[in-house]
Design a protein that fits this description.
Radius of gyration: 28 Å
Strand order of the largest sheet: 1-2-3
Shape: globular
Number of strands: 5
Strand content: under 5%
């Protein structure tokens, strides 16, 4: 369905969805245009669709190819309605066509005809404005009791001026709700701007209605409207708005709630977050560029991105005990500020990671290079844990460039190190090797023992992935020699953690080589550090996964894998949890318990659309 913005295409397709869905189908909605008006990348589109089909966001595959495979697998044979909203290009829809789901229905809205979709069996529907009777009914419904206070002629004229444009009707009604006295002045103002509606492009009616709503606000609310539009990302809290508005949180909340009443913002009660509709956000951003001094605007953006950095740093710190470079990280480490819980940190990142990613580019635009690259550092662990590799690679592309502009070799070292692990996550081992080598060179140039140790360890992991265990163990040994000779350059706590991680890597290598006794010895040393008190659930679980594989006592091995599964579950790492339950099911001597564990692994893999579900099914069949 193609139409001008705001003509009600979404309302119409929602009715079609209801007709098509029935009682036995699912409804999946995908947003194809980002908050900044750009096309949503393929991986994000697939991620939205997978989540709509029941996959948890934390369990999404890392690469676009794996997401595409998971989507086809998850959709196969199912009856559901898929709505793809605000499509920019036909390619966005093509990758979402479920090839093995003949009972699925795909609906698309766009601002233009997408002729490339016609050969796929799509029916094109062009949408025009509402008929006059329907427009009047919508106006009256939107006005509620206020409509009873208006003369019929005034309502008719308001509808005529809105020209059957549903969004414009709703916005005008919102402006009048509870204040019928403003109707005639409003009609006069719309009359005066009618020529502009006819002379400019097809989106001008919406822009005009937004202008009316904007002009009807007192200046404090206009300023808030302009300034919160400068917050990157799809939604925001009152605390973020307070930074943009240079106000306290209570005052910001009052400003935002007035904008919600004016239908210029939406508010989600369950999350406590505010958001713009895309067209409203664009209008607000234009007002910010027209009505705010450029220096003031840049200061606001700089304040926002710096605030997000300071919010992200403590949450990042609790996710990982790994060292960080950067002034903000150093200041936090010595500040004595309260440390959030790991679970609270994960919840915060789940809500804010897209905004923090958007802040990286925003910081670069206002030439806050130091903030841009430190935001990348703070994002690394969460993006790594949850496999958001597209955002990880893109944010670090900008972050590396920002670090290079500062000439800070320590920053370049950390960013290329983090990006290298993203390349590993997507299977590009040569790019990973190049980044870790560049990071190692930067570490050596500034004499950074921590960076040197880390990159040697990562280069060992790359070699292990490539099957060269001799090279892998040599790199691990080099890495440990750095710790041995670093003296005070590596703190005692960091040295212990580094040695524990090296023990884990060596244990994996020995397991890969089939040397169970050596693997047991190495992983026991790692577990001595990653005990329950360490707070690093993920690393403890990884150690237990190895331990369970190499223990001779079958029951003890099952217990280790079961504990690993529970720890992975606590961090929301479904793929790793499934792997652990699969191992429990393979080794558990109790046939009923083994079957239950295998079924649990199968269900998790099914939710993920992971092809390893077939391996678990085979084990289930063999256990019958």
């Amino acid at each position: 369905m193609h139409a001008r913005a705001g003509l009600g295409s979404y309302s119409l397709v929602a009715e079609v969805c209801e007709d098509q869905l029935g009682s036995d189908g699912a409804y999946v909605e995908v947003q194809a245009t980002a908050a900044d008006g750009q096309a949503v990348p393929p991986g994000e589109l697939l991620g939205q669709a997978l989540c709509g089909l029941g996959l948890a966001e934390s369990d999404l595959p890392g690469s676009d190819a794996e997401r595409a495979h998971a989507y086809q697998r998850k959709s196969a044979g199912r009856r559901f309605v898929l709505l793809v909203k605000d499509v920019v290009a036909a390619e966005q829809v093509e990758l979402l066509i479920p090839h093995a789901a003949p009972d699925a229905v795909v609906l698309v809205t766009s601002r233009r005809a997408l002729r490339r979709l016609y050969p796929h069996g799509f029916l094109a529907v062009a949408l025009d404005g509402l008929p006059s009777r329907d427009a009047r009914e919508l106006m009256l419904a939107s006005l509620g009791v206020t409509g009873r206070e208006l003369e019929p002629g005034v309502i008719d004229e308001l509808c005529a001026l809105c020209d059957g444009h549903p969004l414009l009707i709703r916005l005008v009604a919102a402006h009048l709700l509870g204040r019928a006295r403003a109707a005639e002045p409003l009609v006069a103002r719309v009359r005066r701007s009618r020529a502009a509606l006819l002379e400019l492009d097809v989106t001008q009616p919406v822009a005009s209605s937004l202008k009316l709503a904007y002009d009807g606000l007192a200046e404090p609310y206009r300023q808030a409207y302009r300034r919160v539009a400068l917050i990157p990302g799809p939604s925001f809290t009152a605390a973020a708005a307070a930074i943009a508005c240079h106000a306290d949180v209570l005052a910001a909340t009052e400003l935002l709630d007035e904008l919600v009443d004016a239908c210029l913002l939406t508010y989600e009660e369950s999350s406590g977050r505010y958001a713009f509709h895309a067209v409203v956000r664009e209008h607000a951003r234009l007002r910010a560029f027209d009505d705010e001094d450029s220096e003031v605007r840049d200061v606001i953006v700089a304040d926002i991105v710096e605030w997000y950095l300071h919010e992200a740093v403590p949450r990042d710190a609790v996710l990982s005990g790994r060292w960080r470079v950067g002034a903000v990280f150093a200041a936090y480490a010595s500040s004595g500020r309260p440390v959030p819980t790991r679970d609270a940190a994960i919840v915060w990142f789940e809500a804010e990671w897209r905004t923090v990613v958007a802040c990286v580019a925003a910081a670069e635009r206002v030439e806050r290079h130091d903030v841009a690259w430190q935001l990348c550092v703070a994002l690394f662990k969460f993006l790594h844990m949850h496999g958001h590799t597209a955002a990880w690679l893109e944010s670090h592309r900008v972050g590396v460039a920002a670090a290079e502009r500062t000439g800070d070799q320590a920053a370049i070292m950390q960013l290329t190190n983090q990006r290298g692990s993203a390349w590993i996550a997507v299977g590009d081992l040569e790019s990973a090797r190049a980044d870790f080598t560049a990071s190692l060179d930067a570490a050596e140039s500034v004499g950074h023992a921590l960076g040197k140790q880390s990159n040697l360890e990562w280069l060992g992991k790359v070699a292990a992935r490539q099957g060269d265990l001799t090279q892998a163990f040599a790199r691990y040994d080099e890495s440990e020699r750095v710790i041995d000779t670093a003296g005070t350059a590596i703190s005692g706590d960091q040295a212990l953690r580094m040695r524990a991680l090296l023990d884990l890597q060596r244990a994996r290598g020995h397991r890969q080589a089939g040397d169970a006794p050596s693997a047991r010895a190495e992983v026991a040393r790692a577990l001595a550090y990653f005990g329950a008190a360490s707070g690093e659930r993920e690393n403890r679980a990884k150690c237990l996964l190895v331990l369970g594989d190499v223990l001779e006592d079958r029951a003890a091995g099952v217990d280790a894998h079961r504990e690993a599964a529970e720890l992975f579950a606590a961090d929301g790492l479904g793929r790793m949890e499934a792997e652990a339950w699969h191992r429990v099911g393979r080794r558990d001597a109790d046939s009923n318990a083994a079957k239950a564990s295998l079924e649990r692994a199968r269900a998790l893999y099914a939710e993920l659309g992971d092809r390893r579900e077939d391996d678990v099914r085979a084990d289930l069949d063999a256990s019958q």
